[in-house]
């Protein structure tokens, strides 16, 4: 029999149980996903004329419908289509598009015969006459951005726009979508469902952008559905069409335009980039629906004990969020806030009922953050949006602090007000897998702060916690949530605070939290960059490499750029080897070993034991780092370290302010420019020009020391500051004791030059002569073979009577499903096999086998044979044989590349000899297209 594992039991009072709007939301979601009725569809008809008033153009039609085109800026315009010819129905008003007054553009209007042309220095909008359709070109009037393939229609309370799709056009956006971020051929609900499962949307946004060079935001509160097929079909549940368009030379340009109109991402307080901890500490409250006897969770002040533990464990963490909803409430909040602040923690509140007391909580008690829970704002759309705005006002109207609000059910414009997170998810490998593209993809809708609970709110394990925390430490905001899970669910796992684990897990958690604290000036600068440009700190690969055909699609959805310098490739399965890391063109240094790889290409077989996150630094990177500390302000930044990967010319502009107040909005901030000149290869001089810190803010140091770490394959000939030579030191101990000087350590990450230049408040130049740029190893490994074109040719047995054990589950990309041979009735004997058509011919060089992931053990494959062939009737000899371990971990089998279109796995025995069955969660492969 196939064993079953009980699913996690949600806590009573859980958000989704607390929702009284469930039926309404379900109905709304169904309305979004179901196809629109085809009958009685109406459209505008033919154009009868165009009039203008300044930069606003009104189009009349034969049906009585009208369109209004507003040119807000040379690269930004609004198209508003009204079926009844009036423009009074504007539900979004100024809620979403808050900045539209950019000044007069002086657009031109030309009658070109079959169309009217509205032109600006950036774009040309064609208003086709018969029937009314629109098309947007660049100013050359020949480079197409988008074109309607047929007139926009409205019927049954839904309005749909249809666009042509270019042969290689890719699409991104739609908010915090829980899954892959490249959307071509996908249909995406732009709707609130509060399901928080893969391919749903935790914070939808009616925005997307295209590699053609444009983005669009539908100016509406209504749910919708976007189908990025051919043609592209874009629908919202309203009888009106209203959209803002943003043209740009790059995806970054489009994000800049979109956030110019809808608001730039807010700049969080710097402590908001530290780890947050959410829990219910008032479990003695009779109304609380969890375990009333939890130790150190009887009253709100018990949180101070947890804070004490964190500091005793030398574990960086910045804020606590005691739950004040679901029967938790809080007691003695002012004293709790005061005692936490003494330990370097800020305090926020997690509300399920509203913010009636926020004036006192912020202004008197000193709370500085809010989490708007779905039991209150779960209706989404304008209800959620207004709830977040109320939280923002509650913080900023009652203190000089910055907004710091967490929410689900965001919408377009939420980036200016809140962190969005993925909702109630579980601590599983599978959930981690889709969290990586979800959080990176959120940035493609301008959401700089997107997160998910570390290891989820349900389930979890020491391994999944460690792996999840590792990569989330490279995102701007992250939080761990506990309080409803079982006490001591497994060995070494007391609850979801990172310091309450046994070894080695606690030390690994500390390692990554400490690294994030050291990287705080870099990550804070990236967030300031986001608030200036709309380009997020956590970046899907396509943002940095838009012209790389691999980076444009979901082949790279399992990795991301943390700012402009770090490539992060999370490990999301129970393995110590990471395959399929894509390194774009350029040189990349392994952060831990110093080994250099030259892209573009795929890196397979990367050794990633539990304490190692695959992490690479881009050539030329200049990364500012603080001294080690457990929270912002624990120590003065008396020395600032710049970690540099010299190669060619590069620069970095460090941003600093007081980190807490809103004074930066009136200019209270500083910048320090650092420029590096280095050889692109071989040996030569490296020059680091450090500018003076310009600008001022409260607490800015008058001077400070500077330290530099520069990667080099050789010791320098000399090191000097200006014309003054620095002394060469003979040991690391001597270097640590010195005020100025340099030391070359050949064993440190394949060669590192350490330099101290002393304390200064003025500009200076550091020169190291005869440094050698490391020679990189080319990566040209094979790539994961996408499963979209795969199909099962044959499986000798499937269990469908008692469960869905279909063979197709083994190649569906979902580890939660599996193929299982028949066990009801008379189970057929071993061996069993599955044959797969890869959809095209490949030189296949590895296969990865993932056993069932539902906790069951029967059917695990023992000994096996693998075949690759061009024929399903003549398989030849196996490319690999062996035995898989009797564990739930994935196993990669590598072999000499063999060309073929078909893949065959034969299970000769069952691991542990438990029975005559075979089961398999996922079968994946790597290779190169073959002639």
Give structural notes:
This protein has 931 residues and is an alpha+beta fold. 15% of the residues lie in helices and 34% in strands. The protein contains 14 helices and 58 strands. The strands form eleven sheets. Strands 5-6-7-8-9-10-16-15-12 form a nine-stranded antiparallel beta sheet, with helices on one face. The longest helix is centred in the middle third of the chain and has 16 residues, at 381-396. It starts with 14 loop residues before the first helix and ends with a strand. 53% of the residues are buried. Mean pLDDT is 93; it is low at 1-38.
Q: Give the DSSP E fraction (strand runs of 2 or more residues).
A: 25-35%
Secondary-structure-derived class: alpha+beta
Low-confidence stretches: 1-38
User: How many helix segments?
Assistant: 14
Mean residue pLDDT:
93
Most strands sheet: 9 strands, antiparallel
Distance between the termini: 44 Å
Shape: globular
Report the radius of gyration as a whole number of Å.
29 Å
Strand order of the largest sheet: 5-6-7-8-9-10-16-15-12
Signal peptide: 1-41
Family: Belongs to the glycosyl hydrolase 31 family.
InterPro entries: DUF5110, FA58C, Gal_mutarotase_sf_dom, Galactose-bd-like_sf, GH, Glyco_hydro_31_C, Glyco_hydro_31_N_dom, Glyco_hydro_31_TIM
Pfam families: DUF5110, F5_F8_type_C, Gal_mutarotas_2, Glyco_hydro_31_2nd, Glyco_hydro_31_3rd
